[in-house]
């Protein structure tokens, strides 16, 4: 029997979706509106710098006005909050985000709370999170939304599926659970205190992995013919970029699997720029 594994190629999906998004930007520009995105980057975390550069490249390629605002690691919370206040009131900016992680001396919750929910492209403010769980999202966290855009592209129907998510972060695990619940999946969130993890994950029709440990998930965690979504951005023993899933070990057991790189990462950015364009379209629709 020939077993065929389907790669969920986020990079290619992203390229395909770029065409439609570029047209939306074009039609906004005909109406005199240029979508504006600002990213606030603190310090010089090299991974963050790469992600932000990728965001900038994609935004500019689509004709979005992109502003990068950089602060030294030593920036005070007050300075950062003042910039957020400025961006909240800047009519050229439809949406902005503060790249995480932030230095320890800055209270992430305080920063999130300062962002206007109307410009919260990341969907991280308490108001945005509340709306997400009520089922009336204003803006959706990019990674979760990107995963759904990718599954939609490959016509994966989540209705009634057993979804297991490993990781309960506010930026990935929780919002992914909310969006998949909205699609009528049966969602289980597991985390570092979960007992019998393998027992739970091996019942998953769809396994979403966001733990931040290189190649942690081997085939014994995976149900036969499962769909595996790898959100990890790790380095292997040779310093090469890899995911939380041991791809070579797991792939033949799955029906669909995301590569790293080229999987969830590019879709995260797709979801972000889609969100910015949608906010800009809101200038017309009120
Ligand atoms: N406020 C905030 N919003 C975020 O959306 C946010 C954040 N903080 N902090 C960190 C995570 C991570 N994230 C990624 C973005 C792009 C790639 C990406 O482009 N990945 C490429 C490879 C990148 C490389 O070459 O290193 C790929 O998977 O093919 C990955 C991860 C956004 N995040």
TrEMBL record:
Biological process annotations from GO: L-histidine biosynthetic process; methionine biosynthetic process; purine nucleotide biosynthetic process; tetrahydrofolate interconversion
Key word Transmembrane helix present: no
PROSITE patterns per record: THF_DHG_CYH_1, THF_DHG_CYH_2
Molecular function via GO: methenyltetrahydrofolate cyclohydrolase activity; methylenetetrahydrofolate dehydrogenase (NADP+) activity
Catalytic activity: (6R)-5,10-methylene-5,6,7,8-tetrahydrofolate + NADP(+) = (6R)-5,10-methenyltetrahydrofolate + NADPH; (6R)-5,10-methenyltetrahydrofolate + H2O = (6R)-10-formyltetrahydrofolate + H(+)
Span of domain Tetrahydrofolate dehydrogenase/cyclohydrolase catalytic: 8-122
Residues in coiled coil: none
Annotated EC: 1.5.1.5, 3.5.4.9
Record domain Tetrahydrofolate dehydrogenase/cyclohydrolase NAD(P)-binding: where: 141-281
Claim: Oxidoreductase is one of the keywords in the record: yes
Transmembrane segments: none
Pathway stated in the Swiss-Prot or TrEMBL entry: One-carbon metabolism; tetrahydrofolate interconversion
Similarity-based family: Belongs to the tetrahydrofolate dehydrogenase/cyclohydrolase family.
Reported function: Catalyzes the oxidation of 5,10-methylenetetrahydrofolate to 5,10-methenyltetrahydrofolate and then the hydrolysis of 5,10-methenyltetrahydrofolate to 10-formyltetrahydrofolate.
Subunit structure and binding partners: Homodimer.
Name of this protein: Bifunctional protein FolD
Organism this protein belongs to: Companilactobacillus nuruki
